[in-house]
Design a protein that fits this description.
The protein is α/β, with parallel strands linked by helices. The chain is built from three helices and six strands; from the N terminus they run ββαβαβαββ. Strands 1-2-3-6 form a four-stranded mixed beta sheet, with helices on one face. It has a two-stranded antiparallel ribbon with strand order 4-5. α1 runs parallel beside α2. The radius of gyration is 21 Å and the shape is flat.
Length: 170
């Protein structure tokens, strides 16, 4: 055996959170989702998948989350709004409830917790100051999410989720 030399070069690699899509017999759409990436990274691929499902007349969906390690709630919300019918618009999807300490602005540590934008830069308030979690509303009203239909897919009658006991494969 001899010595071999390899030259390595670093490169940026971007992967899609959408592992696979397919339209199966019986108007069944299949979507395997690896993770709930930042919405800015996932939205185009999700939009394409659901546009293809709409074009194919999909009425049933299989969402495969076996390899999904979790991620951003707003991306999960977006997926839900791609699936949901427009008849649910403005109806409550879910509500997040926070404890009294947060709801009554009595958690002083929040003033030390900077809010960051998706790109990692500090979020700024309208007056130019850096935002902290003390600037976030923890009220029930401000944390009640409502449906807002996204995409063209309509008429879904059944949705099946494939998951593992632990929520993702190890």
């Amino acid at each position: 055996m001899g010595t071999q030399t390899y030259n390595l070069a670093k490169a940026v690699y971007t992967s899609s959170p959408v592992l696979k899509t397919a339209v199966l017999p019986g108007n069944v759409g299949y979507l395997a989702l690896a993770r709930f990436s930042r919405l800015s990274k996932a939205q185009a691929d999700l939009d394409k998948a659901f546009a293809d499902f709409a074009t194919a007349g999909v009425k049933k969906l299989v969402i495969d989350l076996r390899y999904n390690g979790g991620g951003y709630v707003n991306t999960a919300d977006y997926l839900l709004n791609l699936i949901a019918p427009s008849s649910l618009n403005n109806k409550v999807t879910y509500t997040e409830y926070y404890n009294d300490l947060l709801r009554t602005d009595k958690a002083p540590i929040l003033k030390n917790q900077i809010l960051y934008n998706e790109d990692g830069t500090p979020r700024k308030l309208s007056n130019g100051q850096i935002a902290t979690y003390a600037d976030v509303s923890f009220s029930v009203a401000d944390n009640t999410m409502k449906f807002s239909k996204a995409g063209a897919l309509q008429g879904v009658t059944h949705v099946y989720f494939i998951v593992t006991r632990n929520g993702f494969c190890e």
